[in-house]
Write a structure and sequence with these properties.
By secondary structure, the protein is α+β, with helices and mostly antiparallel strands. It has 3 helices and 4 strands. The chain has 2 domains: 46 residues; 73 residues, Protein of unknown function DUF3889 (Nuclear Transport Factor 2, Chain: A, Roll), CATH 3.10.450. Helices cover 44% and strands 36% of the residues. The longest helix is centred in the first third of the chain and has 34 residues. The protein is elongated, with a radius of gyration of 32 Å.
């Protein structure tokens, strides 16, 4: 009779085992989905439009590094643009640190609006 009981409970145990296995797999998938970072932020960044002043900001940084080779640029601010007749002036403020000395540099880049040919670049130091 004990063999009959084993045979009767065996299919039930098998079914319960299958249900438990499915639950464990589902729980594992749920935990993995919550732990693994999604790609949405990277995709969102890739879809953001590059601002029109970006290339002028890179030039402002490059030329500031050339003018102040011993200083580190520790902050960057785009201050907007100004239109004059056929040219545009892009304005930036960079904050530099050289040794214990910190100071700001206003960088003004003027270029021909239609051709984007640079006309001049100006630097003005500031303490604020």
């Amino acid at each position: 009779m004990s063999n009959d009981i084993k045979q009767m409970t065996h299919p039930i145990r098998k079914e319960m085992s299958s249900i438990m296995r499915k639950k464990i797999i589902a729980l594992g998938a749920l935990l993995t989905a919550n732990v693994v970072p999604t790609q949405t932020p990277i995709t969102a960044l890739a879809q953001q439009e590059i601002p029109s002043y970006a290339k002028w900001g890179q030039l402002a940084i490059k030329e500031t590094k050339t003018k102040y080779p011993n200083a580190k640029i520790i902050d960057y601010l785009y201050e907007g643009s100004e239109s004059k007749e056929a040219s545009t002036i892009e304005k930036f403020k960079l904050w530099l640190k050289e040794g214990d000395h910190e100071f700001g540099v206003f960088v003004r880049i003027e270029f021909i609006t239609d051709t984007e040919k640079m006309v001049k670049i100006e630097f003005q130091e500031t303490t604020r």
